[in-house]
Amino acid sequence: MDTVRLTVGQATIAFLKNQFVERDGAENRFFAGCFGIFGHGNVGGIGQALQENPDFRYYQTRNEQSMVHTAAAYAKMKNRLSTFVCTSSIGPGATNMITGAAAATINRLPVLLIPGDLFARRNVAPVLQQLEDPGTQDISVNDCFRPVARYWDRINRPQQLITALPEVMRVLTSPADTGAVVLALPQDVQAEAFDFPAELFGRRVWVVQRPRPDTALLRKAVEWIRSSRKPMIVTGGGTIYSGAEQVLAALVTSTGIPLAETFAGKGAVPYTLEGNLGAVGVTGTPGAAALSEEADLVIGIGTRYSDFTTASKTAFQNPGVRFININAASFDAFKHAALPLVSDAKVCLEEMLPLLGDFRVENDWHLRALEAQLAWDATVTELYRDKHQLPVSQAEVVGAVNMCAGPRDVVLCAAGSLPGDLHKLWRTRDPKGFHLEYGYSTMGYEVAAGLGARMACPDREIYVMVGDGNYLMNNHEIITAVQEGVRMTIILLDNHGFKSIGSLSESLGGGRFGTLYKYRNAATGSLDGGNLPVDFAMNARSLGAHVIQADTVESLRQALETARTVDKTTVIVVETDLMKGIGGYAWWEVAVAEVSTMDSVRKAYAAYRESKKRQRYYM
User: How many CA atoms lie within 13 A of 530 on its CB side?
Assistant: First the structure.
């Protein structure tokens, strides 16, 4: 057997740079490079290997959590067919990546994390940043990744790499099992040499399979659809990752079945497609809410049915409602006691469509969907209209960005009140035009993810919409964007507080406690003084961005047009009204204090008890 003598770090990079994926005959390299921050846990191993492999490009980032978000956003834009490696030192560098790993796994996005680890030989323990446990020597902070990783391994001997690396690729390229993969590498092992089999480093192509549905179950699903009177489709992210957009549109057009979209599924069909009700669930449109309540059959495609999709199990109220779930992951396909079609979404719909033959929903049901769609479109137009009042509303900002964006441009957001408003209001024309991280609702995802989205799709304009709270948590990858010459437009909404959680606090009787950016009031001891003097324009400018300040809708429109002509990342700062919202949100279960001295809390708890009466198990 031919061998090659390499360090574990060198062998890891040599393997990763020769991994390819293929789907439907199209082939591409799986890893686009490596994000990293070096320290004593990885500089002499993975860092040295990257230095002598310039064809596996290294990107310098500013925060370990951020680089995982950047990699995940890149993978999302690439339909999970390509991603990045992220490497860190041991200790806080590693644990900083845990939030990013959780977000990637929850959103089913492939990222490979290689944190440095303790000395495997232990003779120098305790080393700097080591977490000692008196009950075992076989633990480090990297064990914290286990619950948020789809595959976790620690390489204590070089030869373990030979069997670990193929497992890494198996999970990363699996439509059903993908997520964060963690390969913990002790720093001494990273630098240790071994005679590895030469064939380990050969070019390998991983075929991303399209599993087909069980024939008997598919025929039964068709029977259920044909016998239904009020069916509806809920489309999730799996539809887009599968590339099933065209066949889904054909299904909706030929059958007249109304369709509603989750956060990850928005854009699977254009907002103009007849029967597209738009957002579903807590942040859903009135039409989606009304038809969800009456639907006797829900066809879930590539959705995991989060509580926002089901409105905390209150959305679907028909006593006889049944579910058909099309999903590559059996775990999701079986939810809600559904008829499970464990399958790739595209091939399943391609096989289902001809079996439905001339089936079409009853005309009244179809017309209700069309009327609701048109009515909501008119509402969106009104919400987008410039009211010429200051501060501007969040809805007006969304409208200005949406009207400036081209058909293939991308809006990107994560946590706060913006995701809900975007879910309701954004008119999506392209499957990749709506990029929301709402599985983990990660504050601080936006700027880092905007970098990844633009790296994945340099031919698209990326509009990052971020509130002041999220921006303050994680804005430093602006520097990386400037360093790498990556353009994006960041619209920073300055409303002096946490808009979403403030509103939620009010609904729970809390009166926005702890959610406003105010000085400490010396007289009352509370945070209810004047607004904090954060100069976001100066901050963004100090990070190297081009900065424009806007205060009116018209000045925002002009700023957006200018940003398209600037050759580097632009931050547009616009002050918005904290209290202006669009309303119409469905109930979402958040616990309310059962007893309280506050009358507002007692009233909120009474309303909470009433709302819970609508919850149900789908069996």
Answer: 2
In terms of C-beta density within 10 A (0-12 exposed, 13-18 middle, 19 or more buried), how is residue 316 classed? Answer: buried
Q: Is the dihedral of CA 140, 142, 144, 146 positive or negative?
A: negative
Q: Spell out the residues 6+ positions from residue 71 whose beta carbon is closer than 8 angstroms to its own.
A: 35, 83, 84, 85, 86, 100, 104, 111, 452
* pLDDT single digits (tens) 403-461: 999 999 999 999 989 999 999 999 999 999 999 999 999 999 999 999 999 999 999 99
Residue 286: CATH number of its domain: 3.40.50.1220
263 burial level (CB within 10 Å; 0-12, 13-18, 19+): buried
Residues 350, 424 within the same domain: no
Look at phi and psi of residue 549 and say left if phi exceeds 0, alpha if psi is from -120 to 50, else beta.
Answer: beta
**CA 200, CA 165: separation in Å to the nearest integer?**
9
Residue 506 lies in a domain: no
How far apart CA 135 and CA 380 sit, in angstroms, is 60
Roughly how many angstroms between the first and final C-alpha of the chain, as a whole number?
57
Instruction: Render pLDDT for 190-243 as a digit per residue (tens, 0 to 9).
Output: 999 999 999 999 999 999 999 999 999 999 999 999 999 999 999 999 999 999
| Token pair belonging to 247 | 């066949």
In a domain, 502, yes or no: no
The reply to whether 136 falls in a domain is: yes
Using DSSP's 3-state secondary structure scheme, residue 542 falls into helix
Residue 560: domain span: 385-496+532-575
Is 305 within the bounds of a domain? yes
Number of domains in the chain: 3
The whole-angstrom separation of Cα 44 and Cα 187 is 8
113 with 195, same domain: the answer is yes
**What does the pLDDT read at residue 577?**
86
Residues 201 and 86 in one domain: yes
Q: Distance (Å, rounded) from C-alpha 416 to C-alpha 501?
A: 7
Virtual CA dihedral for 391, 396, 398, 404, nearest 10 degrees? -110
Q: Which helix or strand (DSSP H or E) is residue 436 part of?
A: strand 434-436
Which CATH number belongs to the domain containing residue 476 in this structure? 3.40.50.970
Residues 169 and 298 in one domain: no
- The residue among 470, 467, 463 whose CA lies nearest residue 489 is 463
From start to end of 468-591, where are the E strands?
A: 489-494, 546-550, 570-575
| CA 223 – CA 238 distance, rounded (Å) | 24
For the sheet with 204-207, list strands across it. 26-29, 19-23, 204-207
- 15 and 140 co-located in one domain: yes
- In this structure, are 353 and 461 located in the same domain? no
- Confirm if 59 and 468 have CB atoms less than 8 A apart: no
- 366 and 279 in a common domain: yes
Mean of the per-residue pLDDT values of the chain: 95
* Domain edge (last residue) among 207, 242, 258: 207
Query: Do residues 492 and 362 share a domain?
Result: no
